[in-house]
Amino acid sequence: MDLGAARLARRAGRPPLTESRDAIIRRLLDPDLTLHEAAAILNLSKATLRRYTDQGKLMCQRTGGGQRRFKLSDVLALLEQRGEAAT
User: Fold this and answer.
1) Beta-carbon neighbour count of residue 37 at 10 Å?
2) Model pLDDT, residue 66
3) How high is the pLDDT of residue 34?
4) Closest to 35 in 3D by CA, of 26, 45, 22
5) Which fold has domain 3-81?
6) Residues contacting residue 49 through CB under 8 Å, at least 6 positions apart
7) Which residues of the chain have pLDDT under 50?
8) What's the pTM?
9) What span, in angstroms and rounded, lies between the C-alpha atoms of 71 and 38?
10) What Å distances lie between residue 27 and 3, 6, 47, 54, CA to CA?
């Protein structure tokens, strides 16, 4: 069995990869957080966190349903900016 056939045999029965290796690594190292999770990390109310995003103090992405999602790196950067350390 040649190398190509061996690869195909290993992949048999698995769905095809839809994400690149780099995208998978980025997603795992910098996950999206819900409003509730980000508020808990920052020790802020959800209303305050919504206001922060409306004022541009914290970036967020919106889901198809309009919910806010925050990158862990952005939340930690704001935590550091506020003079607090993540524990």
Assistant:
1) 15
2) 96
3) 98
4) 45
5) Multidrug-efflux Transporter Regulator; Chain: A; Domain 2 (1.10.1660)
6) 35, 38, 39, 42, 58, 68
7) none
8) 0.71
9) 9
10) 30, 29, 26, 25
